[in-house]
C-alpha cells in the first residue's frame, strides 16, 4: 500500500517521537490518530510479545471524560452492563449501544469517582453520542476529551518492567483494577489491562509533557528484559479472540451477536437507552454470532469481509484473519449464522487468493 500522508487531522501522540526512533514500519488510523501496527515484522513482534515485554503507544484509545453530578447516570444510559455496583478503582469492559441495541463502541470504562469516569474508546466517534445524550436529557455533566494517552506494557515480563518504574505496588493490582502511582511527581492511573492475552498494564498518561519522559524511563529500565517498542499484534489478538470494533462488529450488530452477552445485564441496567430493544432481541436470542474460525493454508491480509460458504449458500463472513506461527494454521474471527455455528462445522471461506477450507469453533486459541 502507498504511504499515508501526514496532516493535522491525523493526530500524532505524545509518544510519536519514541515510536519513530524505535523504527515503526507501519501505522493504521484509529480515532483519527496514528496507531503503530508493525515494528520489526508482525511475526517477529508476535514472538517477542509472547516471550518478553513491549511498550505500546495506544494513545488512540482516547478518553471520553464524563464529569459532574449526573456522570454515573449518563454512563449507565450508554451500556446494558449494570454499573450500579462499580467501585472507584475498577475498570469494566462495556458494550455501548444505541436505541436499537446496535453496537456503537466497546470501550473500557474507568471509574475515577462517583462523578467522574473515563470511557477508553475503540474506533468510533462516541463523544458525539455522549454529548448528544447529555444535552438532550439536560444532564448536569461535562463531556470532553482530556489530555490522557494510554501507554501499555504487555508481555510475560510486564510485571517486572512496571515494577522497575512504578515500584512493587504494581504487582498487587488485580485484573481490571487500577492504582494511582507516581511518576516524576505526577499521580497516574495504572491498570492491569490491555489489548493482548499476554498480561500487563495500561498507564493512563495524564499530561502530554510526561509522555516521552515515561517512554524513555520504561525503555531504560527494561534493557535487561529485552524491552522493545510494540503494538497491538494482529496475529495474537485474533488467536485470543479480542474483538476489533469496525472489523468484527459494527452498528449492525447487537452485543449478543458480538459474543459480548456475558458483559450485558440488560434486565438490571435501568436507564440504558438500548434496554428495551435488547430485551426484545435477547428473548429470541441472536441468529448469528462471533466464532473462532480455523482456516487451512495461508491467508492474505484481511481488509474486507470474506464470505463463509456452505456450498453455494453464504452462511457468514470472516472479519479478521492471520497466519498463526504457534498454531501453524490460519486463525480468524467470523460472524456465523445459527444454522452453522456449532463447533466442528466445516465451511469454505472465499479469500481474495481463492477458497480455503474453514472450521468453526466456539473457543479461541487460548
Ligand atoms: N484498553 C483500553 N482502552 C481500549 C482498549 C484496551 N479501547 C479500545 C479497545 N481496546 C476496546 N476494546 C477492548 C476489547 C477487549 C478488551 C478490552 C477492550 C479486553 N477483553 C478481555 C477479554 O476479552 O479477554 C477481558 C475483559 C474482561 O474480562 O472484563 O481486555 O484494550 N484502556
Walk me through what this model shows.
This is Dimethylsulfonioproprionate demethylase DmdA. By secondary structure, the protein is of the alpha+beta class. The chain folds into three domains: 138 residues, Probable tRNA modification gtpase trme, domain 1 (Gyrase A, domain 2, 2-Layer Sandwich), CATH 3.30.1360.120; 82 residues, 2-Layer Sandwich (Alpha-Beta Plaits); 80 residues, Elongation Factor Tu (Ef-tu), domain 3 (Beta Barrel), CATH 2.40.30.110. The strands form five sheets. The chain has a six-stranded mixed β-sheet with strand order 12-13-14-11-3-15, with helices on both faces. Strands 16-19-18-17-20-21 form a six-stranded antiparallel β-barrel. Strands 5-8-9-4-10 form a five-stranded antiparallel β-sheet, with helices on one face. The two termini are 32 Å apart. The model has no long low-confidence stretch (mean pLDDT 98). The site of (6S)-5,6,7,8-tetrahydrofolate (THG) has 16 residues, from loops. The site of (6S)-5,6,7,8-tetrahydrofolate has 16 residues, from loops.
In short:
This protein has 366 residues and is of the alpha+beta class. It contains eight helices and 21 strands. It starts with 15 loop residues before the first helix and ends in a 5-residue tail after the last strand.
